[in-house]
Amino acid sequence: MDLKTDPKLEEFRADVRAFFANDFPQDILEKTARGASLTTAEIRKSESALGRKGWLAAAWPEEHGGPGWSLKEQYIFDEELERAGVPTVTPMGVVYVGPILYTFGTDEQKARWLPGIREGREGWAQGYSEPEAGSDLASLQFSAVRDGDEYVLNGTKIWTSAAQHADWIFCLARTDNSGKKQEGITFIISEMDRPGVTLRPIITIDGKHALNQVTFDNVRVPADYRIGEEGKGWTYSQFLLGHERTSYARIGGKRKQLAHIRAIASAVPDGGNSRLIDDDAFARKLAEANLAVDALEMTVLRVLSAVKDGGAPGKEASIIKILATEAAQQITTLYLDTAGLNANRGFADSVSPAWLEGGLATQHAAPGVSTYLGTRAQSIYGGTNEIQHNIIAKRVLEL
Ligand SMILES: Cc1cc2nc3c(=O)[nH]c(=O)nc-3n(C[C@H](O)[C@H](O)[C@H](O)COP(=O)(O)OP(=O)(O)OC[C@H]3O[C@@H](n4cnc5c(N)ncnc54)[C@H](O)[C@@H]3O)c2cc1C
To answer: How many whole angstroms from 386 Cα to the centroid of ligand 1?
Structure first.
């Protein structure tokens, strides 16, 4: 699939690039470039800038307020979004629950929730994993018990990304324990500020607050917060997987990181006489990381070219997930080389202004190391890479 020689696509690319250069909030780009975490208000500002343009729900069909782009256009859009350094769109609303709502929700549910998601006004969290249910998600025990016109929710969700920024959470809850464990699971929504919902932050190794534990203690939600049929939640949750973005690979962001690493390595390291880029071992690792991104891009384009417009990549997405996350970890490991002895100085969220006045290698040490550490999680979330290998063995290779 060739994206570079079609004049219409190039025109589209130029429009998207101009929007990010001229109309997107530059303070958000600047803070993201520093590697600092955004506040809830800043996330809303970033996402509603895309929402107002009609570009947040990039993969949604036009009838639900999407821009009606082809897969190629979506791919180019994502490439430009990352090239500009726009913060990653929180996927829980627009990528995960949105398609479930417009596919399985009632008209009332669509009217209540889709506009807030599409316009970037409301944040969402995904309550699937539990302390005793991760890869084996179907063994979840979070419960929803029907009581008149309400459900009563009890249990604990964990590793809940961005819940501190969320207005809503969608959960998988057990409504029946009698049959197979995939049966008796129901898809249900709650406000994050309902009485009985408690959020406990989890600070990760990169020094950031991205994860949470969310506990529900007799939380009452209206029965019409249930999506689809009771006991069919597993089916809806699997449907989600087919709607992951075609650009999970994040090629634009990876190329930007590689260029950034090259620039840092080309500056004289603080206190040293030689340039890191002239070190053969480092140059080799940088070249290998570039090749990994080239190979990833070819694989993504091959998978995309096999998908009809309006469709989504199927089981091959597991191959992309593995290649993309391994490449991300390979690239961000190079930040350890560029940081050198500065690597142990602290994290991006706690960098002092005095430090930012140091040389290039010093300035980028904290955000670089933070990114390196944070990227370790990529092979865990979205279904661990071991689980993706199992899927490839069974469904792609049919072993
Ligand atoms: C940064 C981050 C963000 C997350 N965000 C969310 C979120 O927003 N919402 C949410 O619900 N969850 C979220 N998760 C949770 C994530 O989905 C789970 O961590 C993941 O599914 C793995 O589950 P687990 O942690 O319980 O590990 P386990 O399932 O206990 O796995 C432990 C190890 O055993 C391996 N393993 C398990 N089963 C098999 C098998 N059958 N074959 C081979 N190897 C196996 C795994 O690959 C892993 O290496 C997030 C996790 C992280 C790290």
So the answer is: 10
CATH number for the 124-234 domain, one of 3.20.20.140, 2.40.110.10, 3.30.565.10, 3.20.190.10? 2.40.110.10
244 is catalytic: yes
Dist. CA 187 → ligand 1 center (Å): 20
* C-alpha to C-alpha distance for 224 and 176, rounded to whole angstroms: 18
Residues 130 and 157: their CA atoms lie apart, in Å, by 5
Query: pLDDT digit string (tens) for 2-36?
Result: 666 788 999 999 999 999 999 999 999 999 988 88
Q: Which tens digits make up the pLDDT trace of 190-204?
A: 999 999 999 999 999
C-alpha distances out from residue 291 to 250, 327, 330, Å: 15, 9, 11
Is 1.20.140.10 the CATH classification of the domain at 251-396? yes
Distance CA 101, CA 104 (A): 5
Mutation choice for ligand 1 from 141, 164, 381, CB with most ligand atoms inside 8 A: 381
In the chain, where the domains are located: 7-89, 124-234, 251-396
As given in the structure block, the two tokens for residue 274 are 């030689």
